Amino acid sequence: MRVGIIGSAGSGKSTLAKNLATHLGATYIPDYVIAVLRDQGRDSWRGVNDVQQRRRIREEALRRKVAAENEHAEFVSDKTIVDYLAYWLQNQSEHEDRKNNEACVAQCKAAVQRYDVLVFLAYRETVDYAVGRNQEPVHNLKVAAHKRGLLSLWKLPFVEAEYVFGEELTAWCDRYLAPFRVPAGAP
């Protein structure tokens, strides 16, 4: 099964993705934005003010994400290509020309077709502090709206789900993933 975990800051994406990958015996695919930022000696977007540098970071993270997802038959992806595009639309698109924006959208639209299901975690107005995590509720609401809008506009297979930290995953999977499971031996 190819599962993507989508949600706003602090919604439990990373925790659920890691636990779900283990539970399903699938590969965990991390958020590559963090990896690219760390490759540049940063732990967050803070201080990355040059829009061309921001574009290069976003493009490299997207390239790594797509490559990692394409390498595995079954995976759970923490922060999906839908998330990456939502952040592009929110924070980058106004600084780009039409050609760059259309290229990003086309690349994302093609790549999201691999997911069997996208799990959209509920928006949380109150977000716990973590390095690099935006705690501003209005910003997070706008990004969540972009993500939810992309799921609907592109008619992607998704489920809106609640996740409680530490929740038992067998029942969670039965509740949210069962309708999307492909029977063994099916094409």
Question: What does this 3D model show about the protein?
Answer:
The protein is of the alpha/beta class. The protein has a single domain, classed as P-loop containing nucleotide triphosphate hydrolases (Rossmann fold), CATH 3.40.50. Helices cover 49% and strands 11% of the residues. It has seven helices and five strands, in the order βαβααβααβαβα. Strands 2-3-1-4-5 form a five-stranded parallel sheet. The longest helix has 21 residues. 31% of the residues are buried. The model has no long low-confidence stretch (mean pLDDT 90).
Topology readout:
Layout: E1 2-6, H1 13-24, E2 27-29, H2 32-39, H3 51-71, E3 75-78, H4 81-92, H5 98-111, E4 117-121, H6 137-153, E5 158-161, H7 169-176
Parallel strand pairs: 1-3, 1-4, 2-3, 4-5
Helix pairs in contact: 2-3, 3-4, 4-5, 4-6
Shape: globular
How much of the polypeptide forms β-strand, as a percent range? 5-15%
Main sheet overview? 5 strands, parallel
Fourth CATH level, the homologous superfamily: P-loop containing nucleotide triphosphate hydrolases
Q: Give the C-level CATH assignment.
A: Alpha Beta
- Uncertain residue segments: none
Mean pLDDT: 90
Please give the alpha-carbon distance between the first and last residues.
12 Å
Helix-strand category: alpha/beta
How much helix is in the residues?
40-55%
Arrangement of strands in the largest sheet: 2-3-1-4-5
